[in-house]
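DATA SHEET
Item: assembly model
Revision: 1
Owner: S.N.
Input lines:
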Amino acid sequence: MEIDPFIFRLSIFILSIFVGYYVVWSVTPSLHTPLMSVTNAISSVIIVGAIIASLAGSSLSVFNQSSIFGFLAIILAAINIFGGFLVTQRMLAMYKKKKKDKK
Amino acid sequence: MISANLLAIFYLISGILFILALRGLSSPETSRQGNLFGIIGMAIAITVTFLSIDNFSSGFLYVILFLLVGGSIGAFIAFKIPMTAMPELVAGFHSLVGLAAVFVAISAFISPEVFNLGTSGNIKLASLIEMSIGAAVGAITFSGSIIAFLKLRGIMSGSPITFPGQHILNLLILISIIVLTYFLCLNQSPNFFWSLIAISFLVGFLLIIPIGGADMPVVISMLNSYSGWAAAGIGFTLENTALIITGALVGSSGAILSYIMCKGMNRSFFNVILGGFGGTDQTSGKTNKEQKPVKSGNADDAAFLMKNASSVIIVPGYGMAVAQAQHALREMVDSLKKNGVKVSYAIHPVAGRMPGHMNVLLAEANVPYDEVFELEEINNDFANCDVAYVIGANDVTNPVAKTDPQSPIYGMPVLDVEKSKSVLFVKRSLSPGYAGIDNDLFYRDNTLMLFADAKKMTEDIIKNL
C-alpha cells in the first residue's frame, strides 16, 4: 500500500505549525512589529506560484488569461518581498543597546 | 533545468531559512542576522523556481520586468514610510499577500495543466479544495486588510459599524462559502469559483467593519495569520514545501500574536471578532464627570516634579504616536538623566495600534531597548517610583479594571501607575478612551493633569527643565 504524497505535505505542514508555535513564543515582545513585517515578507514566497502562473502563455502570446493573473501576482508579491524585508531591516537597525560610556 | 527532487530540497532549505529568520527575532542582537536569513531564503526560492523552468520564452523577460517594478515600489515604500505609519503599512502589505494568493488560485483554476493539476474542467479533487481554500482565505485577507488599512489611516472612521442581524448574515455567508466549495468540487463550473471569490471578498469586508479602532492590534495579528493560511493553501495546491512551511509559520505567528493581544485586553478572541466594542458608547463616563475635581498643571509644575524625582517611569500610548512625540520624549528623558533621574519606560501589550508599536517608535527615537520594559517586568516598580509620566495612554492605566466588576475593562491587566507618588497625565481633554469609560486616575489626589498635545507639552517641559 502506498501513502498519498498529500499526507507527507500535511505532515510537513503540521510539524511547521509546531515549529512556528515554539519559535514565535520565544520572540521578544519588543520585536513584535518587526515579526509582523518579516512574516509578511516571507509569506510572499507565494511569488514562486506567481512565476509559474505567469509562464502559462505560449511563446507566441505571452499574455493570456491565466498568465496575466500571474504577472499581477508577481508585482504584488514583489512589492511585499522588497518592502517587507527592507522595512524590517530599517526597524531592526534602530534597536540599540545602552552605550557603555553613557550611564 | 534542475530535477524535481533537487528543487524540492532547495525549497526545504528556504523554508528552514525562514524558520531561522523568525528565530533571530528572539533578541535584538540576533534579529538583523535573522532578517538576512529570510532574504537568502527568498532569493533561493525565487532562483530555483527560475531554474526549474525549461522553456525560457519571451514571457521570462516580463517576469523580470514585473519583479523589478514591484520591487522598486516596495523598496520606495519601505524607505519613505514614517515609523508611526507602520500599522497601516503592515495592513496594506497583508492585503497584497491575500490578493496575490487569489490571483495565483485563479490562474491555477484557469490553466491547471501549467501546475500539473489536471486539465481545465477536470482538476484533481484535492487540488480543487486546496485552491478554493487558498482563494477564499486570500480574498478575506485582502478585503479585511483594506478595511483595517482605511481605519488605521483614518480615511474610514475607527468607530465600529454595526447593524442588526450582522452576525447571522456573516454566518450565512460563511456557510455559503462551504456550500459553494462543495458544488465547485461537484461540477468544476467557473461560475461557482468566481462566486466563491466574490463572496469571500464580501465576508472579509463584513468581518472587519464592526471592529473598533483600538481593537486593531488583534485585527492586524489575525489578518497576519490569515495571510499565512492563504499561502499554505496555495502551497498545498502547488505542492511546494517552501510555501507550506512558510504558511504554517506565518499562520501560527499571527495566531499567537492575536492571542497575546486578546489577553492584554482580557477579552476572548470571539468577543473582539464579534466587534462593536467601545467607540460610541460614552454614557457611563459623561454622567458624573463635571462634579469631580481635577487637578491640572502646566509644564513648569511637571518639570519641577520630575527634576526633583529620583525615578520616573514613562507610560507611552497611541497618543504619543499620533502626536509624533517620541523624539521630544527622548530629549526630555536625556535632560532628566543629566539631572540624575533614573528613567524607564513601561509598555502595555496593547499600547498603540499593533503589537510592539510603541517599542518601534521608541527605538526610532534612539531609546535603548534595555530601558524599555513590558508590563509584567515593571509593574511592581510603580510603588517605588516618584513620578509616572503617562503620555498618550489611557485605558491601560485605568484602576477600575482592578476594582469595578461592572466596568467593561474589568480584569484587563493594567499598569499600576496610581501607586507611584505622583502621576503626570498628558492628555488633550478629559474625554474617555476607546473603551468609552471614564478614567478614575484623572481624579486622584496624586494625579496632575497636563492638558495639551503630547508633543507640545513634552517640548515645554524640556524648556523648563
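QC remark: Residues 65-94 of chain A form the longest helix (30 residues).
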